[in-house]
Amino acid sequence: MPTLALIIMIFIFMLILLYSLMIKDFLNPLCVFVSPFTCSYLTYYIYYYRIMNIDQLNKNTYILFLLGIISFVIGYCYMSIFYSSNIASRDIGNKPPRLNQKLFSTRHLKYKFLVEVFILIGLIGFCINIVQAINFALNGPGDIFFNLRYSATVLDKRYYGSYLLLFLHVSTIMLIIYRKYWNVSFRLIFFLSFIWGVSFTFTLARTEMLLCMIAISGSWYLSQKYIYKSKTNYKPFILMGILFLAGFFVVATVTNKVRGNLVNTFMVYLGYPIISFDKYIVDNPSVGNGSIVLYPLIKILSIIYKNLNFSTPGGILIPPGVPNVFSAIQGPYIDFGKYGVVFVFFLLGIVYRIIYAQVRKGNIWFMIYYCFILFPLVMSFFEYTFSFGHVFF
What we know:
The chain has about 400 residues and is mainly alpha-helical. Helices cover about 65% and strands about 0% of the residues. The chain is built from 16 helices and no strands. The longest helix is centred in the C-terminal third of the chain and has 31 residues, at about 330-360.
């Protein structure tokens, strides 16, 4: 079964790679979703199954992972067929529709002042977080880095400026997209990107660093391709990849998260989620009552209705110190079982196809939003993040 699953996954990946070459865009949802999953499974298969000789997983685990991937692909393709039949989108195999550059520039000039206000609000939030971070770092049971991580994960301390920082995130993406029309200097973009990137040190969460890099590099790539119609430059992606790997290993070292050695540490994060899913999740379907997938809705309802009592997943015991990430399959499976995996990922495929169609047309708001929701696609091999704040902010 492991080898059969590998063959099926590589076959799907090759089809999507061919699709990406046809439309000349490797940042499409299919490629962004399937590529990390394929890399993760290859890591599991080669490093853990073949080299480390870990026993074959439960057959249902392989089936569920394939179901999630295939359901997303089918949902995406279904919506593509719908667009084609209604002549609402002609982007497969054709050049994207031409954008009226002058109209685009004039129409969105009014947002420049608003972006400047957003930057100011974001910088205020950054300063607030610095003050809190200093307090957390100097008051704890360990060194500075341990205290920062301890306050965020164990004590569950909240940074009050984080909500304000969202304004800086959005304004940074807008400045990147409008850089030529608004004559934005590269120094300003670099400064704001640096502030955004550095803010991950408040919690030392590498996922925050990855979100920053994906959004920034994605906005540069998409605006270059669909707004300015210029030749795509892949250097930012290479640079971001190098920086992330460097940051990943540095944070693992200073927070004492190195598992044996740096290579094994990287393999754990990349290839172990499917093993963790098999150990702790596959025998617990439909115990979450929608608390993971429907978390944003439940959160809103809990604010409106103070007495709302909604149960959370119970009965899943995960020993301390073991890898506790289970890929994106975890959320729908815990909430609704295998049918939830099929339905949720089918629906996600449809939604991402709708958004992506607007991105290719040069729709500025969809492009900004897509830059942020690229992150859950990339992280799907790792954990379910489609219910996180950056998706619904």
